[in-house]
Amino acid sequence: MQTVSQLVPLRSAVDTLRQDGPLALVPTMGALHEGHLTLVREARRQAAHVAVSIFVNPRQFGANEDLDAYPRQLARDSALLEAEGVSLLWAPTVEAMYPAGYATNIAVEGVSAGLCGAARPGHFDGVATVVCKLFNQVRPDLALFGEKDWQQLAVIRRMARDLDLTRPVVDRIVGVPTVREADGLAMSSRNAYLTADQRAQAACLPRATRAAITAMQGGATYAAALAALKADLLAGGFASIDYAEVRGADSIALQQGPGDEPGRLFVAARIGSTRLIDNLPV
Ligand code: PAF
Q1: Are 1 and 89 spatial neighbours (Cβ–Cβ below 8 Å)?
Q2: Is 123 part of the annotated catalytic residue set?
Q3: Ligand 1 nearest atom to the CA of residue 28, by list position
Q4: Which CATH number fits domain 189-281: 3.30.70.270, 3.30.1300.10, 3.10.450.50, 3.40.50.1970?
Q5: Confidence tier at 64 by pLDDT (50, 70, 90)
Q6: What's the rounded Cα separation, in Å, for the pair 57 and 47?
Q7: Which of 107, 174, 202, 234 is deepest in the core (most CB within 10 A)?
């Protein structure tokens, strides 16, 4: 596995890899877990070579979010990727990604509004901006993202369509289903922040979400099912709920009941100071 941190060697590395066939990109911020490795394995199935980027992107952290506390474990992550047969690790420095004088921001309207976009103002601008840059830097044939961050995936798909990145730059944007622990909790780097008690209580999130979907499918109004979901989370040990809403899977538009567009139930809730998210089809 070749590791590069500057653009010039990146360009020649991707040119060489592409001679063997399709190149897949798995963008990450490091602190890799089984969810990331599932993306890498799927990428290996679909492409001749896999490039993984590790970049803790300052532009997607809010003023009240602790960028410095985000785990950085490059040596450990690099060993995991090497063992998975990754060909290229793109680990740019902040200066390589955002040189002095950098001034461009990408804001994706509509899909970025609401849910995590409301709770974390500017977050999806930062994501869209860095992912657009990663696509232009690596020019992959396909790029893979976890469905746990469904709204992020919708933002990236919209951005790629709107900026004509989909054909000439990245051929396919692939969503990979959420990888879950045995008790149903979605894998996330944030699970590491939970105490043992909080970790046990956190399983209430997927359980209560599934129960709400079953109730909706059984004819309960969305309002009643969502109220019961929130009550279950608070009774199960969650301190507060950022949102529990059904939205269109592509448009991310709010749904009050079944409609033409397939709906997804999105939940974000805090256990202690850790914010967990999940989403499932309704
Ligand atoms: O999901 C993530 O890890 C990040 O938001 C991403 C897509 C790598 C952009 O920094």
Answers
A1: yes
A2: no
A3: 8
A4: 3.30.1300.10
A5: confident
A6: 26
A7: 202
